[in-house]
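Following up on my earlier thread - several people asked me to post the actual chain instead of describing it. Fair enough. Here it is, all 286 residues.
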Amino acid sequence: MPQPLISLENVSFSYSQNKNWALNNISLCVEQGELIAVMGENGSGKSTLCKLLNGIIPHSQQGTLRGTVIVDGIVTADSSVAELAGRVGMVLEDPDSQLFTARVRDEIAFGLENLLMPPDEIKKRLAWALETTGLLSYMDAPPASLSGGQKQRLAIAAALAMATKALVLDEPTAQLDPAGSRDILSLIKKIRQDSGLTVIMATHASEEAAQFADRICVLKNGTLAACDTPQRVFSNRELLRDNWIRPPQVSELAYCLAEQGESLPAFPIQHDEAKAAVLEWYANGK
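Reply from S.P.:
Thanks for posting it. Predicted structure:
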């Protein structure tokens, strides 16, 4: 039986300046090609979980780590950040915190050069990342001249050029308007389809998780409150209330009907599901 790409075994972590556990006894397996949405209220441990997967924790941010994190067969605590960077790309919420070179092409090539890749391989990966993220015509532009959505595309391109196994995104649409969010999510969907990369995405946006995730992991005070399909997570109203997670808007319809003693034939989490459920509900004389 194939091993999971990512495995967390009884993992706990506390930052050196804080006595409380940011994560507490987390066990989780992620298969190659999965898209996992990580949800929960602020302070639940989402960002800490993301940083565990590419070695930022424990190598760059100090604290107490218990348990074992394994990525692509490598125990992260025993490896280097550089070794993991060739497997797992990381994109932060604020792209400006990641961008520091003079040109778009230099931003993407920087990490590859630090991994001491051959020049021909760097050119190949650079061209692919620019083409995939739609930044080919901006390759000589300064990152500061880009829009917010384009900066996030650049941050994704830089991570994508290095990563061979997984892409970890910490609230990638939090600072974007609705149009920019849809643009970035469409890009993530395309990357996953074209490359087969595993995607771990921390998000507050329920519609994003409902549309794209294979599973949703809900964190509460550093513990894993649930990890299940979007359908099961969003149909659990008590779970959502306990973790301050807003359900998708179409799911609110099902909740309202349930409060009136009515129920749709299927619980919707996406617009097409809601349309089909309502049409069937009316066809049955409701």
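The chain has two domains: 6-244, 248-286. That should answer part of your original question.
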